[in-house]
Amino acid sequence: MNTGSPLATLATLLLTQASTSAARIDHAALGLLAASAVLVAVLAGLNLYFVVRYRRGSAVPRPPSALASWKIETLWIVATTIGFLGFFAWGARIYLDVERPPAGADEIAVIGRQWMWDIRQPNGRREFNELHVPVHTDIRLLLTSEDVIHSFFVPAFRLKQDVVPGKQVSLWFNATAEGAFPFYCSEFCGSKHANMIGVVVAESPERYARWLAQGDSAPERLARGGVLYQRYGCSGCHTQPSAVHAPALAGIYGRQIPVTGGGFVRVDDAYLRDCILTPGKVAPAGYPLIMPAFQGVVPEGDLIELIAYIRELDAGDRVDPNPRTSR
Q1: What is the Cβ-side half-sphere exposure of residue 18, based on CA atoms within 13 angstroms?
Q2: From CA 168, how far away is CA 171, in angstroms rounded?
Q3: Backbone phi, then psi, for 79, in 5-degree steps?
Q4: At what angle do helices 269-277 and 300-312 cross, to 10 degrees?
Q5: Least confident piece of the model among 112-121, 201-210, 219-228
Q6: pLDDT (tens digit, 9 = 90+) per residue, 28-55?
């Protein structure tokens, strides 16, 4: 077989298991396929047996059934229901494990746009259509789209996640093998949808660390965030002292704060994202709702930089939003 043929490529993608989830998903899929094949074979065999044995003109006796039909139907319904529930529980367990990222997973931001993938590593290093990750490490991808619905699909990991504009979703995996594994947009997104292809580069933690160190330094990333912090007017209201009655952002990340309507919320990336894009969604208590909504104004890339900058603001040792004086 020509190893470069589409059939060979498809076979490689289907057979390669390069994440901790891949084998479990394959086992469930093959188990369901095997059970279905056995059931089809049994039913087909019984049909063929009865068609031949009780064909028209055969001398085979046809006495009344010794077992009431309702008993046969009840047995069939109960048995198949138990089998289906067993497969449902099996699949649900895998689904829940895949949907719940482990605590402490390394987070990488992924932005889909027509027609490319913009990827931001933890230290701010950017990649396009290439995702470097260390093997045997829990990785959580924070995915969003700047335009239309995309879908991030890594066949070798058996993982796929739809990416919706204006919403951040997550997908986690743990790569178990080194190598280059292609990923695709599996949701039709426009005329160049077929070109929206990338590759996951899974490598040893040591090699990944060396590669990551070649990217932007923390001060450089904070400097970019500081520029955006001023450009979008955040510093005018949220840097104290300020003439505007707005919450100070220095040291707020990770705290529990009261919100309008009662209750408390922890300030994390998701909450900051909502506050920037749709301020009235969960507004902090005690402050007038005067902040404009930045939905459709702040691009996803800038939003990631802004949130990273706010995350680093510390009440006791605050980073200056002016990039000329940031450390």
Answers
A1: 25
A2: 10
A3: -65, -45
A4: 120
A5: 219-228
A6: 988 999 999 999 999 999 999 999 988 8
Find the DSSP H helices in the chain.
6-15, 20-53, 69-99, 205-213, 218-231, 234-238, 269-277, 300-312
Residues 6+ apart with CB under 8 A from 232: 294, 297, 298, 302, 306
Residue 267: Cβ-neighbour burial (10 angstroms; 0-12, 13-18, 19+): buried
Cα separation, 315 vs 253, in Å, equals 10
Distance CA 102, CA 260 (A): 31
Would you state the pLDDT for residue 146? 85
d(CA 1, CA 304): 46
Tokens of 232: 């979008």
User: Among positive and negative, which fits the CA dihedral 282, 284, 290, 291?
Assistant: negative
Residue 305 has pLDDT above 70, yes or no: yes
- Per residue in 115-159, pLDDT (tens digit) is 899 998 888 788 899 999 999 999 999 999 988 999 999 999 999
